[in-house]
Structure formats: C-alpha cells, structure tokens
Design goal:
The chain has 67 residues and is an all-alpha fold. The protein has three helices and no strands.
C-alpha cells in the first residue's frame, strides 16, 4: 500500500467527512499537513541520509516479517 499525497488526503471523501464531524476546517487541516511535512523534511535533513536509510531498512524487515 502506498501513502497518500497531501492532495489526495484533502480530496478524500472519508477524511472530509471525519473533518466535518470533528468541526475542523479543510484549511486548518491543510496547514497542519504542511507544517508536519516541513518538520519531517527538516528532521530528515538534520539526521542525515544514513539514519533515514536505516529506518527504511528496519521498516522493510518488519513488513517482510509480517508477510
């Protein structure tokens, strides 16, 4: 399964329904996603590629172990 892009998340009918139920505007949610993406990108650049690759390998091993 592939992660959704921010655009796909914002267009998804189920997510929109949940946002309405929680009384969260689409604009506020979009800002939250943007802020999280920026923080993640900053953390990635600060920790370096080696840490990212180690995490990806660990995730792959965990996923393969469940299959």
């Amino acid at each position: 399964m592939q992660d959704m892009t921010m655009s796909e998340v914002l267009r998804d009918p189920m997510i929109r329904q949940m946002l309405r139920a929680d009384r969260i505007s689409l604009g506020v949610f979009a800002e939250l996603l943007e802020t999280a993406a920026k923080k993640r990108a900053h953390a990635f650049s600060a920790s370096g590629t080696a840490a990212f690759c180690a995490g990806m390998l660990a995730e792959r091993a965990e996923t393969q172990g469940k299959a």
